[in-house]
Predict the structure.
Amino acid sequence: MLTCAALITTTATTASAADLNDPRMKDIAMQIVSSAENSSLDWRGQFGYIEDIKDGRGYTAGIIGFCSGTGDMLDLVERYKQRKPGNVLEKYLPALRKVNGTSSHAGLDPNYTKDWKTAAKDSVFKAAQESERDRVYFNPAVKQARADGVRALGQFAYYDSIVVHGDGGDKTSFSNIRKRALGKAKPPSQGGDEKTWLNAFMDARVWAMKQEAAHEDVSRIETAQRVWLKAGNFDLKTPLRWKVYGDSFEIK
C-alpha cells in the first residue's frame, strides 16, 4: 500500500444520492472492507491486528492493513509520535525507515507485534489510525469517485481498490486501474453510463488483482461489489449480503 493521491474535479453526484461521507454509509464501507481484510464486520476490533501475511509487504496491521514495507505504517507511527511523544512504538521508527520498501522485520522483532497490540489500547493511537486511513485512502477515493459522478457503490469500489493496491506509480495502482477502465468506458461525469463505467472499473480491478499471487482470489469484487452492481444497488441500500474469500456476510 502506497501513498494515495486524488484527482479532484467537479462532481456529477446528485445531492440526494447516497454518499460514503455520510457517517452511517462510511461505517458500512468499513465493515465491508473488514470482511475481506479480517474476515469480520467488526472493523473497530482490528486496531490491534498485526501479522506478516507473506505478501512481500512485511507486517500488515491495524484497521486498514498498514504495512511495514510500503510506507503507510511508518507514516502512521510518525503521526502517533507527533500526537503522543514517548509512546511504545516510537523506538521502532529507525527500523521502520530501514525496512520500508522491503519485507524485512529487521529491528522490529521480537517485540514489535506485542508493542503494537499495547499501543492499540491507546485512544490516541486508534485516532491516529483512523485519521491516516482517511487521509491516505478513504478521502482520496471518495473525492475521485464524486468527481467521476458515481454513487456509494462506486465510491466503495474506488476505496477498496486503493486499500488493496495503493496509488503509486505501478501498473496495478488505483490511478492506473482507473486509467485502464477509461480505455473501455466513460464515467458519468464525462457522459457515460454509471453501470457500464463501474463494470469497466471492476474488470480493470480484477485484472490488477490477478497480477499478484496474494490477490488472485477476486471474490471481494465478483461475489460482493459486482453482485450489488448487477442488482442496481448503486446506493448500497441495506440489507446487503455478500461472500468474500469463502465467508458469507450480511448488514441488515
